[in-house]
Amino acid sequence: MTGSTLYDKLVASHEVARLDDEHVLLYVDLHIMNEYTSPQAFSGLAARGREVLRPRQQMAVVDHVIPTHPVAARDRVIVQDDAALQARNLKRNCDAQGIALFDTTDPLQGIEHVIAPEHGMILPGMVVLCGDSHTTTYGALGALGFGIGTSEVEHILATQTLVYRVARNMRVRVDGALGPGVSAKDLVIYLVHRIGAQGAVGYAVELCGTTIAALSAEARMTVCNMLVEAGARAALIAPDAITDAYVSARALHLTSEELRDARHSWASLHSDADAVYEREFMIDAAGIAPYVTWGTSPDQALPVDAVVPDPEAAGDALQALAARKALDYVGLQAGQPIAGVPIDRVFIGSCTNARIEDLRSVAEIVQGRHVAPGVRAMVVPGSGAVRDQAHDEGLDRILIDAGFEWRQPGCSMCLAMNDDMLAPGERCASTTNRNFEGRQGRAGRTHLMSPAMAAAAALTGRITDVRTIDAQLAAGAAR
């Protein structure tokens, strides 16, 4: 009998019942809700005369529809009628059921996938679900996290369980040191490009290797967050000393004895040496450059020093058609260098890149410099806590002095569900996770990149290799 993967162990430890060869009834430790995927679930419960089974194992936040205007948290108001209704419904349902809510005016409000880890809600070994696909973020801390649909939200509220189809196992080993100017975001864009938008469909992806081991907990969240763009049903990193330090500093609800016992349990959360994976990738980190997307799918990406690919060189007719359609939408030409493409907007934020480490990397590049004329650049911290820490460290002043808008927390321009969005035809350097058509606004054009790359684009007004930013700014000043 072969050993078990980390994913296998997490599923087995939460299996309430085996339903058939492919499905189990899975116990859920924590369920997170937002304002736009929960209303129908609560309505379904009410129609059946049921209440939430375990309210203390739920958490809710208003994050997708909330405006991020730079006003005091207590003065935040959702003006759009449909969005305000969603927020009111969430509060009413949470109040009625005794569920903790980070509401519109809560000073700690923020993006669900930023709030949960920073408040110590995510522990290694947990199963954490949410009606949002980027719940894979929590795999960075050794927890099994994945997104669910509205009907599944209702099932969890009623039973604290989920009928779950077990995934296959994939392992991605990344070894070596990332080069100068290359971050976790570049790594994960490269991985999505390498695996393909459908390459991990049906798989739980375990990340390992010396490169992964060297990443901070926040950088690991970036990688696990965006691996869903390769179709991954889960993304996992075995907990280690970095995980322990991050979680222990935040899980203040645990007594010293509980933390000691938890650490003993975390030590077993790793794949066995003889575990079998249905698919594996081996990556040399030294070969990864800063990456940027050129099309309308996160896997349509290339190194910043490369040229836009020729659709006719695609592997098959369908891929060629998709590439032609993408280039037509984004307004680029085959053979055109991606570096130097002018941009109108810069957005730094989202559940992928709105943590304190991300903001520090931006501030380091823009300090003493200024956003290029004609560019509107926004920084939206991932939570009230991140915003407060940035203020304490003086990062907000650096960003404001450089010409960035310093906003309140929220999903903001990651998706066009609030009033932060692109105008038709505007091109944006964005630290978000999706560049789909219309994702940031109807007919808006999105190029995904790291916070450092987005900062470089803000300063130059064009897609720029952050490794050459000093030389480019010097050359611009000399002209």
UniProtKB/TrEMBL annotation:
[4Fe-4S] cluster binds at residues 351, 411, 414. It catalyses: (2R,3S)-3-isopropylmalate = (2S)-2-isopropylmalate. Its cofactor is [4Fe-4S] cluster. SUPFAM superfamilies: Aconitase iron-sulfur domain. GO terms for biological process: L-leucine biosynthetic process. Binds 1 [4Fe-4S] cluster per subunit. Keywords: 4Fe-4S, Amino-acid biosynthesis, Branched-chain amino acid biosynthesis, Iron, Iron-sulfur, Leucine biosynthesis, Lyase, Metal-binding. Its EC number is 4.2.1.33. Catalyzes the isomerization between 2-isopropylmalate and 3-isopropylmalate, via the formation of 2-isopropylmaleate. This is 3-isopropylmalate dehydratase large subunit.
